[in-house]
Amino acid sequence: MQYEEHIVMKEYFKMMTDMIVLCATLAISLSFWIISMTASTYYGTLQPVSPLRWLFSILVPLCLASHGMKRKSLDHSGALAGMLVGFVLTMANTSFFSTLMTFFLTSSKLTKWRGEVKKKIDAEYKDGGQRNWIQVFCNGGVPTELALLYMIEAGPGEIPVDFGKQYTATWMCLALLGALACSAGDTWASEVGPVLSRTPPRLITTWQVVPTGTNGGVTPVGLVASWLGGMTVGVAYFITQLLLVKDLDLAAPQWPIVVYGGAAGLLGSMLDSVLGAIMQYSGYDESIGKVVNSQSKTAKWISGKPILDNNAVNLFTSILIATVHRSQRDRVRFGNQIKNMSSGKTLRNTTQVNQPPTTPSLTKTKNMKEKTNIRSPTDSLVSPCSQRLRKRATKDVQSDFQVPEEKENAPSLPQ
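and the corresponding structure tokens:
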């Protein structure tokens, strides 16, 4: 009986805790909405954020963080860092949130998949992953900064990916997608490749056969997995664009986002392998029969130097993948500008040719008129007639219209 009462009380406290968290989330979202409305009132350039978006941006990352803690995908520090990253990305753009959620859920599932096999390979394997705040920020820090810059540039909301209309905001969207696709591709490759690959990995720098788990080792299965991981993130972004963005028929096609995600995942995984093979220590510890990332007396060197750890490699890879798109895009844009500048002379000549030609005789006659003040016979006939008509109209309606004075040199018709 006491055991049943204990269970009932435990469920009751759990329900009350959820209710308190929900009420606090509502209060926080409404307070932030009031602040945004006040700021938009005093500063007209700021766009107010709806209370529903505030609620969604706070509640959903909170639920994902608590779910990650229950599944042991995140520890306490990782959950707090994940809430911050999720809040910023969700507030900036719902497409950012969908890519982050896809990366987090798929990576958590793959980390737990075939855990018994991974324990035999990885000396630092943890049940469920249990990512801390350092790992969260190394994978989500660059997207968070890009999301903040996106809100400064375009404000919170969803926009179509179109360089012709919003160049800077579109670059930030693709850079953020590239960073998350890079992280997803690297995670998929490291979690799927060692388990499913039937061939030993090869070091990406020297192409020598190395033990499984060596930093910088690649396999065909791992490369395919990295491409699929990046493409999965791109598909999530693409579907969110189709569901939430308006006026897509007036924008550029959005389907290349999927291809871009796959390319970013594959390129990010290969770049991560290159950095790991050069700047990350890998040694084979004969006492435990596994590859280790730290030097010891029993570890035999395989590759790399102890300059960076795995988290630093992930951070640098995200930065490089996020900026490589901008540099490539600017290179293409600069080339187009140079091309337009080189053809500017031809365009000017074409414009001059298309203009109607001027008659030299008319120009010469006009200049002579201005110099000598001599009117043509047609002017001498029309001018007095128009003056008489004006006078008659003025007398009939008795208006205040003032007839322009006659010119001194205008000849009059004979009576």
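(Above: one complete record from the training split.) Residues 345-386, 397-404, 406-410 have pLDDT under 50 and may be disordered.
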